[in-house]
Amino acid sequence: METLAFSVDELLTVTAARELAGKNVVFAGIGLPTLAVSLAQETTAPNIEVIYESGVCGAHPSALPATIADSVLITDSEAVLNLASLFGYVLQGGRIDVGFLGAAQIDKFGNLNSSVIGEWENPSKRLPGSGGAHEVLANAKETFVIMRRHSERSFVEKVDFVTSAAPDMARAAGSRSKAKGVTRVFTQFGVLAREDVGQELQLTGIHAGIDVDTVIKSTGWNLKVHPNLEVIANPSAEELELLRTEIDPTGMYLRS
Amino acid sequence: METLAFSVDELLTVTAARELAGKNVVFAGIGLPTLAVSLAQETTAPNIEVIYESGVCGAHPSALPATIADSVLITDSEAVLNLASLFGYVLQGGRIDVGFLGAAQIDKFGNLNSSVIGEWENPSKRLPGSGGAHEVLANAKETFVIMRRHSERSFVEKVDFVTSAAPDMARAAGSRSKAKGVTRVFTQFGVLAREDVGQELQLTGIHAGIDVDTVIKSTGWNLKVHPNLEVIANPSAEELELLRTEIDPTGMYLRS
Amino acid sequence: MVNPNLRKSKVMGLKEAISKYVFDGATVSIEGFTHAIPTAAGHEIIRQGFKDLTLVRMTADIIVDQMLAANCISTLVSSFVGNSSAGSLGEIRRRIEESDPTHLEFKEYSHYGMVCRYLAGAQKLPFYPLKSYFGSDLPTINDEIRKVTSPYPNEDGSFDEIYVVPPVNPDVTIVHAQRADQWGNIQMWGLTGLQAEAVFAAEHSIVTVEEIVSDDLVRSDPNRTIIPSHAVSAVVEVPFGAHPSFTQGYYDRDNDFYRDWSAISGDKALLEQWLAKWIFETTDHSQYVEMMGEATRDRLKVGDAFSTPINYGSRIQ
Amino acid sequence: MVNPNLRKSKVMGLKEAISKYVFDGATVSIEGFTHAIPTAAGHEIIRQGFKDLTLVRMTADIIVDQMLAANCISTLVSSFVGNSSAGSLGEIRRRIEESDPTHLEFKEYSHYGMVCRYLAGAQKLPFYPLKSYFGSDLPTINDEIRKVTSPYPNEDGSFDEIYVVPPVNPDVTIVHAQRADQWGNIQMWGLTGLQAEAVFAAEHSIVTVEEIVSDDLVRSDPNRTIIPSHAVSAVVEVPFGAHPSFTQGYYDRDNDFYRDWSAISGDKALLEQWLAKWIFETTDHSQYVEMMGEATRDRLKVGDAFSTPINYGSRIQ
What is this model's ipTM? Predict the structure, then answer.
């Protein structure tokens, strides 16, 4: 059979969509997470109800949204919640199966930094901050992280600032959270995973043609490789077909 | 001039309406309070926005409501709030100028009992309980009480159960409430009033033809009579006209 | 973008929904603040004979009187025990005043105390603070009403105390609404009370509606959805499911029934007869509605008062 | 039954409303979560040159960058400082990263921490509990984030701690919505964010709307009212008042403007020129809208997607 050409973004989207198999309520950000959910709805997880931080539940957009509050997400959606309900009843209420996040830095336990590079009081770079990320990691049953650039600058031994705390740290500090924290990290090299609190994120999947040493060298902590490291199957013709003709026909996010 | 005939209910309604002069946001129960507010809107207090415990704001009912949740209160109203907003933002938020309440028993400081006659554990008579009455007395800037039967059984030295606490007691117990509590009590004999916390309810107004001793005898505590006790002017022809032809044309509440 | 052929419908029959989510000893919340009381669901609980329920309901009215008379309830959590403005409730009063036939365990709150218990439950908080209860006797007869101290000082350096109530997390919450789609997106207007909070506080939820409507109708107005699909376990179409209370825009409140109830519940024999005739000897709510008769249904009819459409807007490509 | 000849209208002009309720040193909340950001009101604050404001806003975006550049703000209370997904905010970053031209006092929270501050403010509570912040560095840089202990024991007899945030009670809260009546009943659809909580938390409130509409239109759909008249100090008709953000059903988001802003705010000179041209040299927002030009207004047009009317019902006498 002929090998198909695909972009890194397509690869990340397909890999994330496969991991959504059987999930029901997903808290998604804009871009790749939205595409991954859409693909999962057509393939691995037909029952997924997608919820956006803006309060939209069950969106049926006529076009790909540019933000989590895009007007096309509201029109023809199933419900719109105010923020007290969205954060209080849905997120803190524990109704999210999987939350999607990104971050500037992540450590081996899934602590995330989206606040500053350097000292908070006098940062070399001020980042947007938590937004709702802190609450997603604290309350979603598990969290998937998409990091398009796997490097020592983003995969660090210690994050400059703990914006969103791994439940490991939260429980040590007195939280009764039952969240598992970050269970999957999708990068251009493969998938880092852990099943529950207390475990380190390990390399469990690697994309075809990627060298394990490259991944290890690109990770700021001593990355462990899972004994049953699997080579992730490339996107199938069907998956690419759905992404390119149905889900992002204009290539708004899936630029090659 | 000829003297007009009127019922006790008409007298109470008119007396209460006059006391609403200049008030803006009133929390009203069904029956006489609703009629008093309607009359005040036409006479002494055109800016009154009436709010019902069910969540209705700015009702414009096509007929007199039978309950605080009557469908005629909703249709054509200005706003409908859920109960978290009504009790949390409006009542506890301190936005009510005057709340109307009734009670089975009241004492000289305006503590109200609407829970039980006798012991709570084993009452001789179980009454409905607080409903929202406790929150109205605790949070409205001041509270008007309508008691159609002024007697020793209802105007008591000590209430059997403090359902709704006078701010006097609440502050002594640690509350920072700025509510004045019960400032007016309207009865078939006249008006008991106080201006602020710490004062006893005194007889400040008496209806024409009522004997002060009758009022004192009908009160379970040593009722003080205000030095400037005034005789309350009877309902005017205009007030009765509005009540009978516009506000309660079918005599739903103002039975003679 | 969901493929509707693959998505699971939440539509169920009332018998099935009640038997699936209610169980002996369960904590059951039945909400509806005068408007849209899920009477039919309460009657089905009676029909199926569930026992030892802890019933949580702000306004314990006729449906609670009926469930008590049918011996379904051992504990009542409430802030108002009365037949609105239409007299009193015989069964509740007999049990509280005379422990006849048995004692009723009653956890009493004020309305806002109950609202805050649902708010804490929906937000999975250990407690919820409110400015009520200072000076009242309620905390003396309900030891669930407690205090915490604010960590923020006043000008004078003192720290205020405030009362708190614990969360309520029912095993199942039951509410009624005007309509829903097959996925359980619940749309309601008029008085919405605290139905959303009661549902979000619960492990499972059953929502009875006057109509199951098309996806398109629901999605033409997403702001009307007060409870999203993911919080609903079962949605059941039950016309007249709230009688004798009302459903805004569908039928009005049966005030005659409320008035008559005082006499019925005041007399044990009459109450037994009423339960037998209207619940135990009916197979389901459709038969109850049939027995109501056309005259009653006509009396409760409402006219039209339609909302003006608003524009959600569509993208012009 | 209110006599409309006697009731007071709350309609005001934007200049008057801002000068009446905003003052130097005031705590001002400007809310709108991506949707319906009251940009025009923010520009009028800049025009009138108010100083030393404590600005409270969940998502500190373009309007905050502009007010900072105009030296209106000395303290920022926020949970997100970014130009959504369209790059970064030059003025905010210069002030935080280089104290250029001056240091910005920044009280940082997470989104839910901000929501809870408004919830506490609206309910006049001394604090609001939330399950966030354990293990995070946020409490180490914000000493307003504190803890209380629950008075309800766990099975093992231990008592949990939980983080709390203090109330925020702005001197004035400013929000934007689709429409209102002359009395200040505010109707909104699409994303309603926490506009109601922010208004109820405040001493005064200014609401800008796309349209002041008739009483009848508002009252044909009371459930659309998200803020009732009594909580509103002034209502102001400002078409396109939320540009470059959007107003559902009226006009779409100007994504080009958001993209362009990074370059403008990244260059102090360009930013000065922008403020001069679009704010200081315009008399009011209508001139700003005129300068936007027809091409831009056309680009932001939306098509129709009307809600299906629902029936509130009327009593048949």
Answer: 0.97
